[in-house]
C-alpha cells in the first residue's frame, strides 16, 4: 500500500456531453517511470489535470501519495510537480531567476543553491543568466522540467514532454528524464509516441476510448500481441538518423568557427 | 499561519511582476508618454482657445490627464494577466503549494504600484509645466485616495478581459473606450458649452465627478458633494468589477 505513489480507480470525466474518461484504472509505484500512451485527444492531459488538482473528476477515486486529489488538494500540491503539455517558463526572467522563483514559492531554505545545482544538472549553467525567451525549444523544456524538480516532490507529472520538439531536443529531454529515474521519484509521463514510452518507461498503460486497454512492462505488452516474426533486413538509416547526422555536423562546424 | 503564507506568496509574485515592468521600459514610457502628449497638446495648442474660467490651464487638465494615464495603464495589467494564463504560469502556480488568491492579488498590486509611479512622474512633469497647488496634506491625501480607488476599480475591470480574452488584442481592447471617456467630460473643456445630449452624458458619467473632485481638492476649492459622487462611482465600479473578476478567476483552470 505504502509504495503506491499514484492510484486511480474508476476515474470518469465528461466535457458537456462528450465522455472523455469512462472509468480509468491504474497505479504508479514509488520510484517508477510510468508512461500513459494515447493518441491525440485520448484524455491524457485530462488525467494529468485531475491528478494535479487543476480539474475536478466527475467520478472515481484519484489519490497521490495517499491523499485524495479533491478532498486533500493542498496536501497533494505539496507532493507533486507538474510539467504541463506546453512549457510554462517565465520568458522575461532568466533561467536562474525562474528556478529561484519556484524555490522561494516552495519555501526552500537555500533557493540560490538549489537553482545553481539544477542549472548544472540540466546543462543550463552557461545560459543561466540569459532571459528564458531566448532559449531554444529543448533548453526551454529542460528549464521547465528543472523547475518541476525544485524541492524534490515525490511525484512528477510530465505531460507530453517532447511533443513539438525537434529530434535533437527530444533526445536531450529523454536523457534528462532517464536521469530522473535514479532519484526515487515516481514519474507519470504521457506521450503519443510508442518509441518514447519504450525508451523511458518501466511500465506502460495504453489509454484508448476512455479506458486503459492494456497495462504492463514492455515485455508483458509484447507478449500480449502476436509474436514477432524474425526477419533479416538491411537497416536503412531512418530520416531521424540522417537529420541528426547533418545537424550534428553543422553544429560542429559552428564550434570550429 | 495561512495568512502569513498568503502574504509571503503575494510578495514573491509581486516582485516577479515588478521585474517584468522594469525589464520592459517601453510599457513604462508609453504609459507616461501618451497622457503627456495630451497634456502638452491641451496646454500649449488648445489651451489658449479654451475659456475655463480659471487662470492655470495646467491645473485644469491635470486630473483628466491622470485618469487617461490610469485607463491606459491598466491595459498592461490585462496584458500581463493574459500572458500568464495563456503561457501556463497560472497552471504552474495552481499545481504548487501557493495560495491561490495570491496569484491574482500580485497582479492587482503590481497594477497599483505601476500606476502610482506613472502618476507621480506626470505630476512632476506638470510641476515643470506650471502646475501649482496650495492644497494641504489632507487634500493631497484625499486626492491620492480617489486616484488609488479609481486605479483599483479599473484594475479589477482589467482583470476580467485579462483572464477571459481569446487574443492579446482582445485583452487590452477594453481600455480604449476608457481612455476616450475623459474627452466627453469636464476634464478638458467645461461641459456648459456642449450640445444638450452630449452635456447630459458628460455631466452624469463618472469621469466628470472624479475630475471635479480632484480639481477642487488640488485647487483648495470647496469640494461639495462631488467627492461623494466620485467615491460612490469608484467604489461601485470596483465592487461590480471585483465580483465579475472573481467569477472569471474561479473558472480559470
Ligand atoms: N476544457 C475542455 N472543454 C471541452 N472539451 C475538452 C476540454 N479539455 C479537453 N477536452 C476534450 O477532451 C478530449 C481529451 O482531451 P485531452 O485530455 O487534452 O487529450 P490528450 O491530452 O490525450 O491529447 C479531447 O477530445 C478534447 O477536445
Ligand atoms: Mg494533451
**How do the strands of the widest beta sheet of chain A line up side by side?**
6-7-8-3-9-10
The name of the CATH architecture of the domain at 4-87 and 183-225 in chain A is 3-Layer(aba) Sandwich
Sheet bearing the most strands of chain B, described? none
Low-confidence runs of chain A = 252-257
Helix % of chain A is 25-40%
- Specify the structural class of chain B: mainly alpha
* Structural class estimated from helices and strands of chain A: alpha/beta
Q: So how many helices of chain B?
A: 11
**Which fold does the CATH topology of the domain at 4-87 and 183-225 in chain A refer to?**
Rossmann fold
Order of helices and strands of chain A: EEEHEEHEHHHEHEHEEHH
How large a portion of the residues of chain A is in β-strands, by DSSP E?
A: 15-25%
Radius of gyration of chain B over all CA atoms, rounded: 19 Å
Overall tally of structural domains of chain B: 1
Walk me through what this model shows.
The complex is a heterodimer of chains A (257) and B (253). Chain A has helices at residues 44-51, 73-79, 95-105, 111-121, 137-149, 167-180, 194-200, 218-224, 239-256, and strands at residues 4-15, 18-29, 33-37, 59-64, 67-68, 80-83, 155-159, 186-191, 203-208, 211-216. Helix content of chain A is 37%, strand content 25%. Among the domains of chain A are: 4-87 and 183-225, 3-Layer(aba) Sandwich (Rossmann fold), CATH 3.40.50; 231-257, no CATH class. Chain A has 257 residues and is α/β, with parallel strands linked by helices. In chain A, the strands form 2 sheets. A 6-stranded mixed sheet of chain A has the order 6-7-8-3-9-10, with helices on both faces. A 4-stranded antiparallel sheet of chain A has the order 2-1-4-5, covered by helices on one side. Mean pLDDT of chain A is 87; it is low at 252-257. The longest helix of chain A is centred in the C-terminal third of the chain and has 18 residues, at 239-256. With 253 residues, chain B is mostly helical. Chain B has one domain. In chain B, helix 3 runs antiparallel to helix 5 (100-129), helix 6 packs antiparallel against helix 10 (206-218) and helix 6 packs parallel to helix 11. Chain B has helices at residues 2-23, 25-46, 57-86, 89-94, 100-129, 137-164, 168-173, 175-180, 196-204, 206-218, 226-251. The chains are: A alpha/beta (257), B mainly alpha (253). Chains A and B meet through helix 2, strand 6 and helix 3 of A and helix 1 and helix 4 of B. Magnesium ion binds at residues 44-45, 85, 159-160 of chain A.
Amino acid at each position: 500500500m505504502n509504495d503506491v505513489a499514484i492510484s486511480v480507480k474508476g476515474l470518469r470525466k465528461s466535457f458537456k456531453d462528450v465522455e472523455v474518461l469512462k472509468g480509468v484504472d491504474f497505479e504508479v509505484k514509488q520510484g517508477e517511470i510510468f508512461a500513459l500512451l494515447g493518441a491525440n485527444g485520448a484524455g491524457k492531459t485530462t488525467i494529468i489535470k485531475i491528478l494535479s488538482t487543476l480539474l475536478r473528476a466527475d467520478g472515481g477515486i484519484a489519490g497521490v501519495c495517499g491523499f485524495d486529489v479533491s478532498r486533500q488538494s493542498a496536501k497533494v500540491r505539496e507532493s507533486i510537480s507538474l510539467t504541463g503539455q506546453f512549457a510554462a517558463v517565465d520568458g522575461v526572467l532568466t533561467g536562474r531567476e525562474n528556478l529561484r522563483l519556484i524555490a522561494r514559492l516552495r519555501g526552500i531554505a537555500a533557493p540560490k543553491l538549489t537553482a545553481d545545482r539544477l542549472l548544472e544538472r540540466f546543462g543550463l549553467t552557461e545560459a543561466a543568466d540569459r532571459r528564458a525567451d531566448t532559449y531554444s525549444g529543448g533548453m526551454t523544456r529542460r528549464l521547465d522540467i528543472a523547475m518541476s524538480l525544485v524541492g524534490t516532490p515525490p511525484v512528477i507529472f510530465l505531460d507530453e514532454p517532447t511533443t513539438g520538439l525537434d529530434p535533437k531536443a527530444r533526445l536531450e529531454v529523454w536523457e534528462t528524464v532517464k536521469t530522473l529515474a535514479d532519484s526515487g521519484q515516481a514519474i507519470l509521463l504521457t506521450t503519443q509516441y510508442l518509441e518514447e514510452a519504450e525508451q523511458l518507461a518501466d511500465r506502460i498503460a495504453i489509454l484508448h476510448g476512455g479506458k486503459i486497454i492494456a497495462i504492463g512492462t514492455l515485455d508483458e505488452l509484447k507478449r500480449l500481441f502476436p509474436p514477432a516474426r524474425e526477419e533479416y533486413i538491411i537497416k536503412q538509416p531512418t530520416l531521424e538518423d540522417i537529420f541528426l547526422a547533418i545537424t550534428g555536423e553543422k553544429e560542429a562546424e559552428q564550434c570550429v568557427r | 499561519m495561512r495568512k502569513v503564507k498568503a502574504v509571503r506568496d503575494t510578495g514573491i509574485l509581486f516582485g516577479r511582476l515588478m521585474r517584468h515592468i522594469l525589464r520592459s521600459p517601453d510599457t513604462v514610457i508609453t504609459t507616461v508618454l501618451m497622457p503627456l502628449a495630451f497634456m502638452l497638446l491641451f496646454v500649449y495648442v488648445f489651451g489658449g482657445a479654451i475659456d475655463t474660467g480659471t487662470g492655470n490651464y495646467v491645473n485644469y487638465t491635470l486630473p483628466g490627464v491622470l485618469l487617461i494615464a490610469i485607463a491606459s495603464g491598466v491595459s498592461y495589467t490585462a496584458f500581463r494577466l493574459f500572458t500568464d494564463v495563456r503561457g501556463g504560469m497560472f497552471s504552474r502556480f495552481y499545481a504548487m503549494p501557493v495560495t491561490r488568491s495570491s496569484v491574482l492579488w500580485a497582479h492587482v498590486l503590481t497594477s497599483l504600484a505601476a500606476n502610482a509611479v506613472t502618476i507621480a512622474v506626470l505630476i512632476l512633469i506638470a510641476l515643470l509645466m506650471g502646475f501649482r497647488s496650495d492644497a494641504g496634506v489632507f487634500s493631497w491625501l484625499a486626492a491620492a485616495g480617489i486616484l488609488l480607488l479609481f486605479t483599483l476599480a479599473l484594475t479589477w475591470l482589467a482583470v476580467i478581459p485579462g483572464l477571459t480574452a481569446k487574443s492579446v488584442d482582445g485583452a487590452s481592447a477594453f481600455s480604449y473606450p476608457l481612455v476616450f471617456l475623459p474627452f466627453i467630460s469636464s476634464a478638458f473643456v467645461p461641459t456648459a458649452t456642449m450640445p444638450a445630449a452630449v452635456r447630459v452624458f458628460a455631466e452624469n458619467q463618472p469621469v466628470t465627478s472624479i475630475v471635479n473632485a480632484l480639481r477642487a481638492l488640488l485647487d483648495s476649492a470647496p469640494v461639495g458633494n462631488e467627492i461623494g459622487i466620485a467615491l460612490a462611482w469608484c467604489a461601485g465600479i470596483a465592487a461590480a468589477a471585483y465580483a465579475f473578476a472573481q467569477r472569471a478567476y474561479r473558472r480559470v483552470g
